Here is the input.
Amino acid sequence: MIKVIIERRIMPGLEEEFEQAAREAMRVSLGVRGFISGETLVELGHTDRRLMITKWRDLRAWKEWHSSEARAMAMQRILPLLTEDETIRIYEPSY
Here is the structure.
């Protein structure tokens, strides 16, 4: 199992539009094979900063989603709302 951490910064004033686009992207990912769970957090005192934490069965499942047409379509709504490229980090349990 892996966790994928995605950091995003939203253009000021577009937070609500981002929330709608992010919810739709999360709905799409719910049906993806290998997706286990996900949550989105807002940094305290910084409404323009979001942290997504998603859990995947394995790296292959994440890579399939990351390069999928469905994610590309979801990102078409999200990317114009960001001030910079998203940062993606992948973690695995340290046994």
The first strand starts at residue 2 and ends at 9. The CA atoms of residues 33 and 61 lie 7 Å apart. Residues 15-30 form the longest helix (16 residues).
